[in-house]
Design brief:
The complex is a heterodimer of chains A (326) and B (261).
Chain A (H helix, E strand, L loop, with lengths): L11 H5 L3 H22 L3 H26 L7 H18 L3 H20 L7 H21 L1 H4 L5 E2 L10 H25 L1 H11 L1 H6 L4 H27 L1 E2 L6 H13 L6 H17 L6 H18 L14
Antiparallel strand pairs in A: 1-2
Helix pairs in contact in A: 2-8, 3-8, 3-11, 3-12, 3-13, 4-5, 4-11, 5-11, 8-11, 9-11, 12-13, 12-14
Chain B lengths: L9 E10 L2 E11 L4 E5 L6 H9 L6 E6 L2 E2 L5 H6 L2 E3 L12 H6 L10 H5 L3 H20 L15 H14 L4 E5 L7 H14 L5 E5 L3 H7 L2 E6 L2 E6 L1 H6 L1 H8 L6
Parallel strand pairs in B: 3-8, 3-9, 6-7, 7-8
Antiparallel strand pairs in B: 1-2, 1-4, 4-5, 9-10
Helix pairs in contact in B: 5-6, 6-7
Classes of the chains: A mainly alpha (326), B alpha/beta (261).
Organism (chain A): Bradyrhizobium centrolobii
Protein name (chain A): Branched-chain amino acid ABC transporter substrate-binding protein
Membrane topology (chain A): Multi-pass membrane protein
């Protein structure tokens, strides 16, 4: 089900092209089954970490979407993640509604915020867009503290409501995050073949040719940024739900940088395994290497350099399913 | 071919274009009539691609007017002109490397497709039907150009001749009313050029405006019914292939010279 597995538009190519597509699909299915059964064996801290890992994997996906479909880099996606997380918390505090209502609402609000940012910056690209997103991430803590009345200021807010009362909280966090992540991956695989998905890929690879068939660059930029921000906000909503709390400390400038690191480490992949690699890298590595302390950023830096070098050398991409054309 | 006076096709009148102090096009006029394959030739640097880009909306001349089927085009960009039914190909192959050949052609249908953002993420029966229909049309365009067998290959695995034809397939799949081809035979070998000529003749219809900008004189002479000749930004001749062959100015600046241009 990986996006890259579905590179051909019609089904005619699948059977003719041998079985490794099916093997890839089966292994993803096996992964999903394994993750679904994991709570039977594990518990407590591992489940909690994995719930956060799934939420972060989704946030990494949002950055990878922007890279893959827009050819752009965002350093400040933590802004939209925070937007989603706070939306869940504020909806619960002000309206008393659970995540069943706030999850879709957070996604829509994230899309709206993405559009509000993307429309004026639709002519920016490359380093200029990246710097503009950086401004978002830098402004975020100030905004959160400034709107203390809504956001709870430094202390943040708690998210206490269950989705389904009666089921243990750890299980709810885990399964909601896993299900949403899986569904988004499926939706992205479908998107890759859709008219809009093809149009965005074309606009990124051949902007002039795309323009000549009616796809304007500004449409492409605004669309993919809006979509990406919506997914980031959805990820934020899950982060809030999984950690039961939101505070400015969770959404610093470095959160945005780490999302980009996760995206690079996952080779900007849009499949479930790629997202999990990215999510695990930015969630589990710091958690389980907590005693390493100051070494974590250095580890990130080294990983980033290694992945960038290897990926650009084409050594890893050759093993990815997308090279099937040969 | 007789064309009714009213259906005036794609018309450019008195186009002048300058980049800074450099006059690239000087009071150039041309009429591309439906049902006629029109050629545009000229030595290197004559302004062919600049004129082409003026017609497709990539450049905007400082002076002059252009219209398509009576609708003024002035001020419209490439995407808006595409919406008017004008498509083009590019001198440098403009294929998206991540997409298969079929998908590269499918993109040409973007403006015709109606499925919304929701169905881009969630499959719906209507979206599936629309997708099948679009794929069928893209496949038909590939088959029309004789490259249907390469539909599921990646562009990087295909020869330039096939990719050229795929570009034309992308241009025709949306059933445009004007197709402008920028050096479609560039980089093609003799066999591929012959295939291209046949394909272009086959897709000609009485209501289609087709312009071919080309270096390859043999191709232009064989393919086109009407030819314009551009030199140093000015139109120096226009007429049938026989008239162009006999035109003294054309012989002097183009054919008579070392034709490597």
């Amino acid at each position: 089900m990986a996006v890259s597995d579905l590179a051909h538009a019609s089904k005619t190519g699948v059977s003719a092209r041998g079985g490794h597509v099916d093997i890839a699909r089966l292994s993803v299915l096996a992964l999903v089954v394994a993750l679904s059964l994991l709570p039977l064996l594990a518990g407590g801290f591992l489940l909690y970490s994995l719930s956060l890992c799934f939420a972060n994997a989704l946030a990494v996906l949002s950055v990878s979407m922007l890279v893959r479909y827009g050819g752009e880099v965002s350093i400040g996606h933590s802004f939209f993640v925070a937007f989603g997380a706070y939306a869940v918390a504020i909806v619960e505090h002000r309206l008393g509604l659970s995540i069943a209502a706030s999850l879709p609402l957070a996604t829509l609000l994230g899309a709206a915020a993405g559009f509000v940012f993307a429309f004026p910056s639709r002519r920016l690209s490359g380093i200029y867009l990246a710097v503009a997103t950086m401004a978002l991430a830098l402004a975020l803590p100030e905004i959160l503290i400034g709107f203390e009345k809504f956001t709870g200021g430094f202390e943040g807010l708690y998210i206490a409501q269950d989705l389904i009362p009666g089921i243990p909280k750890a299980l709810q966090r885990y399964y909601v995050a896993l299900a949403v992540l899986g569904l988004v991956c499926l939706a992205l695989a479908h998107f890759r073949r859709s008219a809009q998905g093809l149009a965005l890929l074309m606009a990124q690879a051949q902007p002039r040719a795309a323009e000549a068939i009616g796809i304007t660059r500004s449409w492409a930029r605004v669309s993919i940024f809006t979509l990406s921000a919506a997914v980031a906000a959805l990820a934020g909503a899950l982060t809030g739900f999984a950690s039961s709390t939101v505070s400015p400390n969770s959404f610093t400038f470095f959160s945005g940088v780490f999302l980009l690191v996760g995206s690079v480490v996952s080779l900007n992949g849009l499949s479930l395994p790629a997202a999990l690699v990215g999510g695990a890298f930015i969630t589990l590595v710091p958690t389980y290497l907590a005693q390493a302390g100051d070494w974590v950023p250095i580890l990130y830096g080294v990983a980033l350099v290694v992945v960038t070098l290897v990926a650009n050398a084409g050594d890893l991409r050759r093993f990815l399913p997308r090279g099937r054309g040969r | 071919m007789t064309v009714p006076a009213g259906s005036n096709g794609l018309v450019a009148e008195g186009i002048s274009l300058a980049f800074g102090g450099l006059q690239v096009l000087n009071d150039v006029s041309m009429t591309l009539r439906p049902g006629v394959i029109t050629g545009l030739i000229g030595p290197n640097g004559a302004g062919k691609t600049s004129l082409f880009n003026c017609l497709t909306g990539l450049y905007h001349g400082q002076r002059g007017r252009s219209s398509f089927a009576g609708t003024p085009l002035n001020g419209l960009g490439p995407a808006q002109r595409a919406a008017c039914g004008i498509t083009r190909s590019f001198q440098n192959l403009a294929m998206c490397p991540d997409l298969s050949l079929l998908e590269n052609v499918l993109v040409g249908l973007t403006l015709k497709r109606r499925s919304g953002w929701f169905s881009a993420f969630v499959p719906t029966p209507a979206q599936r039907a629309e997708q099948r229909d679009a794929e069928r049309r893209a496949m038909a365009a590939l088959n029309e150009l004789g490259i249907g067998s390469a539909a599921h290959e990646k562009p990087s695995d295909l020869p330039p001749g096939t990719l050229r034809l795929a570009e034309i397939a992308r241009a025709i799949t949306s059933e445009p009313t004007a197709i402008l081809l920028d050096e479609p035979a560039a980089g093609l070998n003799a066999v591929e050029t012959r295939d291209l000529t046949r394909a272009l003749k086959r897709l000609m219809r009485s209501d289609l405006v087709l312009l071919v900008v080309e270096h390859d004189m043999d191709l232009i002479m064989e393919l086109c019914e009407h030819i314009y000749v551009l030199n140093f930004g000015s139109m120096i001749a226009s007429g049938t292939p026989a008239e162009i062959r006999a035109h003294p100015d054309v012989i002097r600046v183009y054919l008579g010279d070392d034709a490597d241009a």
